[in-house]
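Comment thread on ticket #2218

A.B. wrote:
> Attaching the input chain for the structure job we discussed in standup.
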Amino acid sequence: MARPQPSFACQACGAVQSKWAGRCEACGGWNTISEEAAAVPIGAGARRQGRGRAFALEALKSSDSEPARLVTSLSEFDRVCGGGLVPGSALLIGGDPGVGKSTLILQVLASFARKGGRAVYISGEEAMGQVRLRASRMALADAPVALAAATSVEDILATLERGEPPAVLAIDSIQTIWTTALDAAPGTIAQVRTASFDLVRYAKSSGAALLLIGHVTKEGQIAGPKAVEHLVDAVLYFEGERGHHFRVLRAVKNRFGPTDEIGVFEMTGRGLAEVANPSALFLGDRERQSPGTAVFAGLEGTRPLLVEIQALIAPAGYGTARRAVVGWDSGRLAMILAVLDARAALGVGGSDVYLNVAGGLRVEEPAADLAAAAALISSFGGEALPKETVYFGEISLSGDIRPAPQPELRLKEAAKLGFSAAVVPKGIKADCAGLRLIELSHVSELARFAGHQGRARSANLSRAKMES
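C.D. wrote:
> Ran it. Output below, let me know if you need it in another format.
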């Protein structure tokens, strides 16, 4: 039988190579490749002797009802999970260091345990004394959460199998857990993948809801194991800027609920507080309206969210114009600026452009194009937009304004917060919720609405020449 050949895997991206190299060709990382033992191949004779066991094929239709959810009473967390934790499911929670992942998990377990559920917290990074101090500071010391500090997956499984299976099990963090079945160091691709598989298998067999905390890399991805994201049922990212007091829990994968759902929390001295109305938090004080600000009526998952987009256009201080973006895609900003120059004759190509989403929220929805364009036009002309107006719509390269999904939810949220008008794509079919709708079909109309009549007329003339 042929001798098994060792493989070399990158500990940053998981790419497998046939030989060791100082630099990974897949991700470009240096000194991230380490040797991993290869599995022993099964010969043809062994395959003939070890015949598989036949199994029955069943119909797609089933009479089974949806599994009952484990409600933690932390409504923002339950919302992101799709209504609560599903027994036997596995969730992976990632986030930057210090953003509050351990704080969130401790509050989830304490809230669930206070309702009579059995919750177990396994800490691989902190000593039990540190966890107890944090629980005391957050007024959670009286919660009946079972606590332990361990890093060996064999010890963890032996302890859990000795008693009654927990309803919710949290591992903080998966990068510190290791197994004696491998010689690799803790945190490597092989260790994290094997330990995660053993824990997920225990969750499926026992019915416990498993919560895994994962570190993130400099690029914002969960460190090391992309394979772990395929093993789990849901992947949640806990986001937040150090300079802001709020945190956003975002679902990017969920087999039991909607993706791109968010839950909003506020970091306080006693832990995380739920934010019932995040739109009011992101809008802030709007008593004084200044040029370059527009309110975007967005949608995160199933939740409508109003957020202020701020723009500033200033003369370029150097030869090359600068573009700075916070909370939005820089490529999207470059596209909007090009469309405004070509279709609305705005003429901002040689100016410095700064764009910011207020509150530090990350907006990825294309429907924010219209609000960003309105803020840019307002800043360039120095004229403030109407105060009680919201904007949403996607802008194409031709300058046309296209509709956004679920306009009714956006309009209802705007009406609930006291807005009286909405600038929307032309021809939307939705209940206006008592708002005055200003329908636009082209960015030249947006420029005219913002007060740039001369520029809009020039754009219309050039557009008519192109059509003729």
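A.B. wrote:
> Thanks. Noting for the ticket: The longest strand covers residues 303-315.
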